[in-house]
Specification:
Rossmann fold; 28% helix; 28% strand
Length: 392
């Protein structure tokens, strides 16, 4: 359910706070929804009970994004989905040199509060009064000094800010993903009129780069511990090819385009390497191959191969046990002869879906398990049989 201003006022009151604390460890499964609502309705109205249940569920979901403060924060489903990973929020905030930041389409305030925690004075604007009310609550919970106002930024925005962070909605009112930047709400083109020494736009990680050709700047694809989370358009940066950034608890890593000699293509060797998705989106597979002294299986396939295991944060690696040109009967006979009963299928540039391949293999019961990587070498389909993954 969507929280109204009345719901938020209720949730911020002492009575609701006590109830939320009492039910913090309640069973929130679908099977227990009706019994839990029935119990809550003994002392609450239907809207109040619904607001309590919604908040309990969102707080549980929010633990990974707000590990310290989630049990006292307020959220909307869409606002929580759009909130960045904490490593991404801290990374961005740490790069901003300005001491005053304007956060446009601030939602529930996650990024505004990250900028505030890094020492900037922050004004967050959003068209939705409920989201602004939640942002103010969350600011108070975190004891951070950020200001939030209801504003339709399509009409006007304040001036005099050194940095503008713009995070337009990438979902429509039905929750469906918006694929084109000019259909974002508001559209990306609104940023053309912004005045600041630094302008950062948060985009979908699946953005079609052709949509950004007229904007200049540089796109940065951001991965958090191997999961592609967002793309950033740095509008005031020189026009450069995309870069890849990997954020981990151990540190941050970056890879940029540079001129290199063509990378060797080779048959599978001892190890298979799957590059981080930020590398793929930034078009940096060959640069990574050169940095790792690895070869590519195929000019069009983003798998690398090497003679030895390579420890790198930029990918996962598998020990290759064998490989063969793909023939279903031959692959099945190979696996059955080795008593392989379970396979995990990965594919890239291969026509069959993993589930379809597993069904067609019709493996017998067996104690062994393998990873099958179905891909191409020199344009032809191959099957690579591997042990379990190893993380750099």
């Amino acid at each position: 359910m969507a929280l109204s201003l009345a719901d938020i006022d209720f949730l911020r009151a002492d009575r609701a706070s006590r109830i939320l604390a009492d039910y913090a460890d309640a069973d929130l499964s679908d099977a227990n929804t009706l019994p839990l609502l029935t119990e809550l309705r003994k002392s609450l109205s239907a809207p109040e009970a619904g607001a309590i249940l919604t908040t309990l569920r969102l707080r549980k979901k929010a633990i990974t994004k707000f590990p310290r403060y989630a049990p006292a924060m307020l959220f909307t489903e869409a606002g929580l989905q759009q909130a960045s990973h904490p490593l991404a929020r801290r990374y961005r905030a740490g790069l901003v040199e300005s001491d005053n930041v304007l956060d446009l389409c601030c939602g529930i305030g996650a990024d505004s509060l990250a900028f505030a925690a890094a020492g900037s004075q922050v004004l967050g604007l959003d068209i939705n009064p409920a989201r602004i009310a939640i942002a103010r609550h969350n600011s108070a919970i975190m004891r951070l000094n950020a200001t939030f106002k209801v504003e339709d930024i399509r009409n006007s925005i304040p001036t005099g800010y050194g940095c503008i962070f713009y995070d337009p909605s990438r979902r429509d009112q039905q929750g469906r993903r918006i694929r084109h930047v000019e259909r974002y709400q508001p559209p990306l083109s609104l940023a053309i009129g912004f005045e600041a020494s630094e302008i950062i736009v948060k985009l979908s990680p699946g953005i079609d780069l052709r949509q950004l050709a007229a904007y200049g700047g540089q796109v940065e694809f951001v991965s958090v511990s191997g999961q592609l989370t967002e793309a950033l358009l740095w509008l005031r940066h020189p026009k450069l090819p995309p870069k890849a950034t990997l954020l981990t608890e151990r540190g941050n890593f970056h890879l940029n385009h540079r001129d290199i000699e063509p990378v060797e293509t080779a048959a599978p060797r001892a190890w298979l390497i799957e590059p981080d998705p930020a590398i793929l989106r930034a078009g940096l597979v060959q640069q990574l191959a050169q940095a790792l002294n690895a070869a590519m299986l195929d000019e069009t396939i983003a798998y690398l191969t090497a003679d030895h295991q390579i420890q790198t944060p930029w990918g996962r690696s598998w020990r290759i046990l064998d490989w063969m040109p793909f023939q279903l009967k031959r692959l099945r006979r190979y696996l059955v002869d080795r008593r392989v009963g379970r396979v995990t299928v990965k594919k890239r540039g291969f026509p069959l879906a993993p589930e379809e391949l597993i069904d067609r293999l019709r493996l017998k019961a067996g104690a062994a398990s393998r990873v099958l990587v179905m891909t191409r070498h020199q344009g032809k389909p191959i099957a690579i049989i591997c042990k379990e993954a190893s993380f750099g």
